[in-house]
Amino acid sequence: MSSEFFQCGRYRFARDRRPLVMGILNVTPDSFSDGGRHASRDAAIRHAERMIAEGVDIIDIGGESSRPGSAALPLDEELARVMPIVEALANCGKPLSIDTYKPEVMRAALAGGADLINDIWGFRMPGAVQAVVAGQAALCIMHMQRDPQTMQEDPQYDDVVAEVEAFLRERVSTLRAAGVDDSRISLDPGFGFGKTPDHNLRLLGQMTRLAIDGLPVLAGLSRKSTLGAIVGGKPPQERVAASIAAAVCAAERGAFIVRVHDVEQTVDALKVWWAIRHESVAP
Ligand code: 7PJ
Question: What separation in Å is there between the alpha carbon of 76 and the centre of ligand 1?
Fold first, then answer.
């Protein structure tokens, strides 16, 4: 049975509201879509404050780039990038998500006040499940085929939706068996992580199948290359409208969280989508 709320560390969200907007805060100097403009601590904090003013619901802090072909970041470097931002934003009034697959970073971030651990490896690294089992932090289990260095080299599936669903189901059972409550779990097909544009579009089209036992689904499509391919090869900064369209389609297919770069535009779009769906101006 799925929970009536999504427990996100110190915060709790009712499930019958419009989708949550998770704003991306990259602290990677080599981030592909913002060119590392937020690499410095002060710039990252200003970016977070701007997203808060724009109505962000969750701030997703990422230290290691996971763009296709990128190399792993040493642990101490990731901690040095992420922890000052976690400390600076711990009392900003919004839940903090940490995009990491390293158990040591998970533990440090949780001790520093993080509310959600967003793991592109789906808590498969040794020690990852144990690092998050205690406490109330939310977890995002993402599907990825292979690893960021090789994932876009000719990804293959017999049935992409069935395989992603089976993977997520297995990870959910593992986390439940370790003692994680369903109210803390969210699921993510991992758009672009070992998937062709056709795989991504099939997953988006059938996303309702991925809401295993009614668990909330997170969709991360913002500025991704599949959208670029659809709109004629535009670069990431010119994929804003494409990203908003994708976020609304994800909402229509049941997404409870959308992970985005363009917070203000996405919040407005989802408010309109919600109002139309409920035939009432949302509060
Ligand atoms: C995702 C992510 C995603 C989750 C990245 C990018 C690449 N975490 N981290 N889902 N993507 N949960 O933003 O283009 O889709 S990094």
Answer: 22
Question: Is the alpha carbon torsion for 253, 255, 259, 262 positive or negative?
Answer: positive
Place of tokens 């949302």: 282
Residue 187 domain-assigned (yes or no): yes
Please state, in angstroms and as integers, the Cα–Cα distance from residue 13 to each residue in 94, 129, 177, following that order. Answer: 12, 23, 24
- Nearest alpha carbon, ligand 1 atom 15: 220
Residue 229 lies in a domain: yes
- Write out residues with Cβ below 6 Å of ligand 1: 24, 66-67, 99, 118, 120, 140, 142, 188, 190-191, 218, 220, 224, 259
Which residues constitute the domain of residue 151?
A: 5-278
Q: Does the active-site annotation cover 253?
A: no
283 inside domain: no
CATH no. for residue 123? 3.20.20.20
| 24 Cα nearest atom in ligand 1 | 13
| 259 counts as catalytic | yes
Total domain count for the chain?
1
Atom of ligand 1 nearest to the CA of 224: 14
pLDDT tens sequence for the chain (283 residues): 579 999 999 999 999 999 999 999 988 664 445 554 445 788 899 999 999 999 999 999 998 888 777 888 999 999 999 999 999 999 999 999 999 999 999 999 999 999 999 999 999 999 999 999 999 999 999 999 999 999 999 999 999 999 999 999 999 999 999 999 999 999 999 999 999 999 999 999 999 999 999 999 999 999 999 999 999 999 999 999 999 999 999 999 999 999 999 999 999 999 999 999 999 996 6
Q: What is the largest CA-CA distance in the chain?
A: 51
Record the tokens describing residue 49, joined without a space.
């404050």
